[in-house]
Each structure stands twice: as C-alpha cells, then as structure tokens.
Amino acid sequence: MIAATRYVRLRFPPRTHGLAALLTYASVVALCSGARLGVVPLVLGGLTFVLLFLFLRLVDDLDDGTDGTPAGLRTGMVAVAGAVVLFNLHDLLALALAGGACAAALIAPLLPRHGITHPVMLFVAYEVAPLLVLGYGGVTAGAPPTVAVGAAVVLWSAYEYWKFTRKLDEPDYRPFGLGLGARLVAAAGLSAVAVVAAAVISAVGAVPWAVPVVVALIAVACAVATRSWWRADRRGPAWWSGLTFVLAVDVTVLILCAAWGVWG
After folding, report:
1. Are the C-beta atoms of residues 113 and 44 closer than 8 Å to each other?
2. 54, 106, 98: which is closest to 80 by C-alpha?
3. In whole angstroms, what is the distance from residue 165 CA to residue 112 CA?
4. Does one domain contain both 67 and 93?
5. Is the pTM of this model over 0.70?
6. Where, by residue number, does the polypeptide cross the bilayer (predicted)?
C-alpha cells in the first residue's frame, strides 16, 4: 500500500495529473452538453476516466522499465482494470470502450518488439488508447456519435499537444523519433485539429460558436509564442508548453458551455 501511494504521488500526482484528468472529463461532458447525467453515473464516469489515464501511465512505465518493479506495475494494472470493470457494469458500451482503451495500451508496446518502428504507425498505435479514453467520456455522457467523437478529438488533440511540448529541456526525449523542431510543428498541427473538431460540434449545435473561436485564439497565441521561443534559440520549459494548452482548453470549454447552458 505504501509503495502504491508513493508511485501515485511521484508518477501520477493527484494535484496535477489527477486534476487535469478530472477537468478533461468535465470538459468532455460539457462538450456533450445536450446530455444530462445523474450524480452516480457522473461520479463513476469521472473516477473511471482518471483510472484509465493511470492505467496508461502504468503501461508506459512497464514498457520503459522504470519507476517500479514489473510485478508491482502489473499488480497495479490488474487492480485498476478491476476497478474500471466494477464501475462500469451498468453501462456495457462504456465498459467496452474502456476495455478497448486498456487493450490498445497493452498492444502498442508490442509493435517495436516485432520490428514495426515507422513513426506514423507507432503514433497511431500508441495514441489510439488515449483517444478511446476520451471517447469513453462522450459515451458516458450519452452524446450522439458525431458529438462524442468531436469532443474526444478536441481534447485528444490537447492531450497530444501536451505530449509533444513537454520535456523541452531534454534532448533525448524524442516521441516517435521526432526531434524538437518536428514535435513543435506536430503540436501546432494538433492544436489546429482541436479547432476544427470544436467547429464541427459547434456546427451541429452541441456548443456555442464561442468555443471554437476561443480555442482558435489559444492555439494562435501558443503558435506565435512557440515560434518566438524557437527563433530566440531558447531551451527549457515555457508558458505555452506542457499542460498549458490542455488546461486552457478545459477551462474555456467549461466556462463557455456553462454560460451557454445558463443564458443560451
């Protein structure tokens, strides 16, 4: 128990990673604002959402061979998976999506071991799992398919932005073989994908047009700051890197969708 608590504190801090996961789940539900969840499904969905991201962390650490013994990490994965099943027995579709996310996370590390190393194929393999986790949020909200997929893509893009812009001071951090310049370009492209997805769900009336407009302004601000940072040949964390885009999108969605619900 002590080892598990220490692992969570170091590798999935509740005040950062846990809070970001909860805000993201709340944002998925807000983007699917036509749905009305009861308190119990909302709580179970939020807990499951956080646990699924913890599961992804456990799989990553097991794959990397760091931050815990293999036996301990596998035990943690089994415990988390068991809790996910227990929390979702009332909703078989949500359970299937959560199970798919866990399966995708477990399968992805097998590809490089079998000689599959193309960056695009690895990106697709590794990033299906977080997309399914975010899709889980839309399913629990009972949203129509277009809205559920759109909401998942908006927040998946923000999550991927975090992945590509973190660890700016570590030259050896090369996700999918991309160097620093390439991953910053990828991050800018992902922020654009978030804008397009937000526009799609706004076009079907799920959220106000203010959502894609403000997300676009955030994306442009981050892109301009990134370009300035790069041209100045700086290194190390910057205000636009890491969780900034995720949190900015989450807060934007929550505030605008709440205002739309009250005054729309």
Report:
1. no
2. 54
3. 23
4. yes
5. yes
6. 40-59, 71-87, 93-111, 145-162, 182-203, 209-230, 242-263
